[in-house]
Structures are given as C-alpha cells and as structure tokens.
Amino acid sequence: MVEMLGTVAKAGRFLGAIDITLYRDDVFLGLPKPEIGATELPESIEGARWFGRRRLFTGRTCAAAMDVLADYGRPRAVQLAVLVDRGRRELPIQPDYVGLRLQTTADSVGARGAG
Fold first, then answer.
1. Is 60 helix (H, G, I), strand (E, B) or coil?
2. Could you tell me which of 24, 32, 45, 56 has the fewest CB atoms within 10 Å of its CB?
C-alpha cells in the first residue's frame, strides 16, 4: 500500500498510521471489547494529502479515519486510494484512486478476485 501511494503521489514517504477504534459509529454496539491500537502520525499533518485503505465498502471506516485526522490538524487535502472498491456505500465517500472495482450484492461476505 505504501509503495502504491508513493507511486501515485510521487512522494514515496510514509506519513503514519491511525487507529479508528474509538471513532467508529458502532464502537459500543458491535465490538464486545474494543482494542485500541497506536496512532502514529508526524507532529503536524498540515500539508499532508494522502489516505489509503486496502478495501472500501460502506465508507464508515473512512469517515472515522477522517474524524481522527481532523482531531490532529487540518490536512491540505484528503485523497483516498484503495486497492479494492466493493461498492455499496452507506456514506457519500468515493475513492480518488482504485486498484480494482468489484460489483457486490447485499449478500456478499468478502471481496474475492478472479484466479
């Protein structure tokens, strides 16, 4: 993922990682015992512009991640890069860069590639 983002951005540097656990809208509904991970960001995210995910489905995780970023500062822009877009958004979030788009149904359980 870092290499893909570096290629697209022509920046080639890793900005950090965020934990969205406490920002999820279902943190107290669907998670029996939330485990909080580390958030590792540079001191300032001013001027940053990338956000990457392995896959995109409903958009809820991305919304939570943008809430985390807002608590750390004001990035210049947020551009979303995903390896797999599974569609079926519940929030108005669209990726700027997509590796693979899959058509899914409401009954789909996971993303499966051909071959």
1. helix
2. 32
- Is the distance from CB of 23 to CB of 12 less than 8 angstroms? no
d(CA 79, CA 10) in angstroms, rounded, equals 14
Place of tokens 């809820």: 60
Write the burial class of residue 80 (CB in 10 Å: 0-12 exposed, 13-18 middle, 19+ buried): buried
Beta strands in 31-101 (DSSP E): 50-56, 79-85, 97-101
Q: Which long-range contacts (CB under 8 A, 24 or more apart) does 85-88 make?
A: 85/55, 85/56, 86/55, 86/56, 86/57, 86/111, 87/57, 88/57, 88/58
pLDDT tens digits, one per residue of 4-37 = 555 655 655 566 788 998 898 887 786 677 788 9
Nearest to 90 by CA among 113, 69, 62: 62
